[in-house]
């Protein structure tokens, strides 16, 4: 039974770490920030603050547990409150609340959509949870044996913004896996809504229009896939609009500060962060030179862009070019919903819109550079392209409404229905594939039987990784430094032949691990001697030297002890 002290600490520490400290830190560092900037940077601060706290405890060899994490956040709250008082600054800047409840209603809608009505869902969700679980069990950051490990460039490490926030929510709130994911998903959604509204404010001062762009972004199939049971890709997508905003404001000191800090956060959020910086910096810089004054320039450029996207798309169903065309359409619709076709039509209908304001041309250049990548078999290109796809669909939508005011209601309702439907389909699809209740019960049996581990989970289907996401003893990996002469930088792939889509795949594989800290080795399962074989509905035979320890609702668990 949980003690009252633990419950009280959880009820106070979670809002302190998620809301109070990030907001007060923004008020201390950015006292003149307006509403949009304050709320957007608050989202960034949520991730950086809950990344910094466990890292500091780890470096000072202080256990990362509820008392120590809570003390850190409570002391920080006291320091920030005193600092604000001494500086004579108000807690809320003027106009902090939006003039309408629309942004908060969108936050509420997203919180409902990402609520864990099922158990864990997603393809690699358990991998991020593995790291969060290890922080809670080991009471340190076991993969932090080299600074590059925080960015995922070490064996058995991932970029650490997400797992450290996920671990902090679970440790501070004593919530369990499902509720910790919900809190993390809410933080991701909140950040994405207000970073996208900040980006939209460069094009429109109308709060309703800004919320419309934010809704298109957070309810898109790509974003919903990574905010529902949110992972590091969701954190990356939440921060990307803020990085774009910084690039569009480099003429101001605030733009430089936001760009540098957000670039670091993107690297710590996902391995796509470094390629994002490498691609967007030159693309958006060259965008200032795009000759868009002639009416045919933008349509010609998007046509060339579509041709490259066709070369990158996988073949689907049919043979030859027809199969790749169908693959292009499938990737476009399943990832971008209605926005992909609409943005292309919008560029042909309103090519002059890319002449103004001046920041439109860098966004067009970024769209041209990233939109083809959205149709590759990997999702990274679609993630990178999403802010520019939303902008390119949002602006002609507004233009269409202005040109046909009689159909304003019909146009807005149609766009809203298509947008919500795209996100809802992803939630339903992922929920159908979520961890079944009987598999969850089997995981709870292992957690109660062997909460320490280390052990391994073996199965012929995905139910093994579903169980792995809910148990504390797997993986109990060990990472350590050892003498090695390995190269820190992997050489890029020399094979440059083959179709464009194959070359893109090789480049993606290279960028996933082009940095390798010399001398870092890992044992993924901590040298586990105990193996649990999970069998559903007698799908396979257990090893001969194993013994049956669980059988319920068609789920059997056989325990094997290795020599």
Strand content: 5-15%
* Mean pLDDT across residues: 90
Distance between the termini: 37 Å
Q: How many DSSP-defined strands?
A: 6
- Helix fraction bin: 55-70%
- Spell out the helices and strands N to C: HHHHHHHHHHHHHHHHHHHEHEHEEEE
- Structural class call reads mainly alpha
Number of domain modules: 3
Strands in their spatial order, largest beta sheet: 1-4-6-5
The largest β sheet comes out as: 4 strands, mixed
Number of helices: 21
Rounded Rg = 24 Å
Please, could you describe this protein's structure?
With 563 residues, this protein is mostly helical. The chain has 3 domains: 4-271, no CATH class; 280-403, no CATH class; 437-482 and 519-561, no CATH class. It contains 21 helices and 6 strands. The chain has helices spanning 4-29, 35-59, 66-87, 102-113, 125-138, 161-173, 177-200, 207-218, 221-227, 232-247, 253-269, 273-287, 297-312, 320-336, 339-349, 360-370, 380-403, 408-432, 437-449, 463-468, 500-512; strands spanning 455-458, 478-481, 520-523, 530-536, 547-552, 555-561. The strands form 2 sheets. The chain has a 4-stranded mixed β-sheet. The protein has a two-stranded antiparallel ribbon with strand order 2-3. Strand 5 (547-552) and strand 6 (555-561) form a beta hairpin. Helix 12 packs across helix 16 (360-370) and helix 15 packs across helix 17 (380-403). The two termini are 37 Å apart.
How would you sum up this structure in a few lines?
This protein has 563 residues and is mainly alpha-helical. 60% of the residues lie in helices and 6% in strands.
Helices and strands, with pairings:
Layout: H1 4-29, H2 35-59, H3 66-87, H4 102-113, H5 125-138, H6 161-173, H7 177-200, H8 207-218, H9 221-227, H10 232-247, H11 253-269, H12 273-287, H13 297-312, H14 320-336, H15 339-349, H16 360-370, H17 380-403, H18 408-432, H19 437-449, E1 455-458, H20 463-468, E2 478-481, H21 500-512, E3 520-523, E4 530-536, E5 547-552, E6 555-561
Helix pairs in contact: 1-2, 1-3, 2-6, 2-7, 2-10, 3-6, 4-7, 4-8, 5-6, 6-7, 7-8, 7-10, 8-17, 9-10, 9-18, 10-11, 10-17, 12-16, 13-14, 15-17, 16-17
């Amino acid at each position: 039974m949980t003690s009252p002290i633990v419950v009280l600490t959880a009820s106070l520490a979670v809002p302190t770490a998620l809301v109070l400290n990030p907001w007060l830190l923004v008020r201390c560092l950015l006292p003149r920030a307006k509403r949009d900037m304050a709320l957007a940077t608050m989202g960034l601060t949520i991730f950086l603050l809950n990344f910094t706290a466990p890292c500091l405890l780890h470096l000072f060899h202080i256990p990362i547990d509820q008392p120590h994490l809570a003390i850190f956040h409570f002391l920080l709250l006291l320091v920030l409150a005193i600092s604000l008082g001494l500086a004579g600054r108000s807690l809320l800047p003027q106009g902090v609340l939006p003039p309408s409840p629309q942004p908060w209603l969108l936050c509420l809608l997203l919180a409902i959509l990402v609520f864990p009505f099922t158990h864990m869902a997603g393809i690699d969700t358990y991998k991020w949870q593995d790291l969060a679980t290890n922080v809670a069990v080991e009471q340190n950051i076991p993969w932090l044996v080299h600074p590059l490990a925080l960015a995922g460039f070490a064996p058995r490490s991932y970029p650490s913004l997400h797992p450290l926030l996920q671990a902090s929510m679970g440790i501070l709130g004593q919530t369990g896996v499902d509720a910790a994911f919900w809190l993390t998903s809410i933080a991701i959604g909140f950040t994405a809504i207000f970073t996208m509204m900040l980006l939209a404010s460069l094009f429109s001062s109308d709060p309703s229009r800004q919320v419309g762009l934010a809704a298109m972004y957070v309810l898109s199939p790509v974003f919903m896939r990574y905010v529902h049971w949110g992972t590091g890709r969701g954190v990356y997508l939440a921060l990307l609009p803020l990085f774009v905003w910084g690039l569009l404001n480099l003429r101001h000191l605030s733009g430089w500060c936001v760009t540098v800090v957000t670039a670091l956060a993107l690297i710590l959020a996902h391995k796509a962060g470094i390629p994002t910086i490498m691609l967007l910096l030159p693309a958006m810089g060259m965008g200032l030179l795009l000759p868009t004054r002639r009416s045919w320039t933008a349509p010609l450029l998007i046509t060339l862009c579509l041709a490259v996207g066709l070369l990158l798309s996988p073949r689907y169903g049919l043979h030859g070019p027809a199969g790749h065309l169908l693959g292009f359409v499938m990737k476009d619709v399943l990832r971008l919903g209605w926005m992909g076709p609409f943005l292309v039509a919008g560029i042909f209908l309103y090519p002059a819109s890319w002449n103004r304001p001046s920041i439109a041309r860098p966004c067009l250049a970024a769209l041209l550079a990233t939109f083809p990548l959205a149709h590759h078999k990997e999702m990274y290109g679609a993630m990178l392209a999403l802010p520019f796809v939303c902008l390119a669909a949002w602006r002609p939508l507004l233009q269409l409404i202005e040109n046909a005011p009689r159909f304003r209601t019909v146009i807005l309702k149609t766009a809203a229905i298509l947008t919500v439907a795209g996100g809802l389909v992803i939630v339903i699809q992922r929920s159908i594939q979520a961890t079944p209740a009987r598999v969850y019960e089997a995981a709870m049996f292992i957690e109660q039987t062997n909460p320490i581990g280390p052990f391994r989970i073996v199965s012929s289907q995905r139910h093994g990784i579903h169980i792995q996401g809910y148990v504390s003893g797997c993986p109990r990996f060990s990472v350590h430094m050892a003498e090695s002469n390995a190269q820190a930088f992997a050489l890029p792939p020399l094979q440059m032949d083959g179709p464009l889509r194959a070359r893109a795949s090789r480049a993606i594989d290279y960028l996933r691990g082009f940095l390798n800290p010399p001398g870092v080795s890992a044992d993924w399962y901590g040298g586990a001697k105990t193996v649990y074989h999970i069998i559903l509905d007698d799908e396979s035979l257990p090893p001969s030297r194993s013994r049956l320890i669980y059988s319920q609702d068609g789920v059997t668990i056989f325990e094997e002890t290795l020599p």
